Amino acid sequence: MEALLMVLIEALLSGVLEYIDSILLNLVPMAFYAERFLDQMLGRDAISELFNILFSFGVSLIILKFIKKGFNTYILWIDGDADTDPILYLTYFVKALVVAISFPTLYGWMATIVQGLTDKLLNIISRGVIADFSIIIASVVSGGLVPGIIGVIFFGCLLYLYIKFLQTGLEILVLRLGIPMACVGLVDSDQGVFKTYMQKFFQSMITVMLQIVLLKLSLALVINGHLIWATATIFMALRTPKFLQEFIILPGGQGGMMGKAYQATRLVQMVRGAVK
């Protein structure tokens, strides 16, 4: 029975080996610039066309929101404070337009900074480490049933984490597409949905950076023969989004509905944890 299981484990790991090299290529660009890979697979600049359409739509919404808010405030007197300086509303309007127009450039700078930091971290972790996965899999299989099972779990998590990278890349792409519409919230004094939107945006980018670093760390541990530590590290990489959510504080203050809902949820989680 054990010999049969070892044959099955070896077959599974050998199948995974075919995808390992392609999985580790272009992780950062794939997450931050998913449209390049999608356009290449589709054979045309479909995502670029979507950017242009949604940008025009978002700018139109910003203009309409500004006109509607100004009309309701200073002519109908049914929205906001009519004594507020009109220059203030004009400032909000200009700010929304500037952010919507300049965001592609700002995002390019931000992605370059995050990618540079990620590359430096990876260079430190991968220094002197040569990944030969055929040798790694052979050593896992030769170690017996328990290392073989742990190896299957590790490489299965590796494949799953790669799918999560693709999902996060698409998530960042969708957030980028929606930025012009999120900028409509900047016309309001409380910034509307924009603040929460950007919070989610930064969380996704930090998630990508941490997951890639943890993935490379787990591979370095495997290469050095520490399979259990490597498995624990890749589990941590999978848990990164939930881990980062622990530090998110929703805007709205203590009296806001969203703030109260968040506090109630955290209180319930703490009570459940204490009971367990």
From TrEMBL:
InterPro entries: TrbL_4 (IPR046084). Keywords: Membrane, Transmembrane, Transmembrane helix. The chain crosses the membrane at residues 12-34, 46-67, 87-109, 170-188, 208-238. It comes from the Bacteria. Pfam families: TrbL_4. The keyword RNA-binding does not apply. The keyword Transmembrane helix applies. This is DUF6102 family protein.
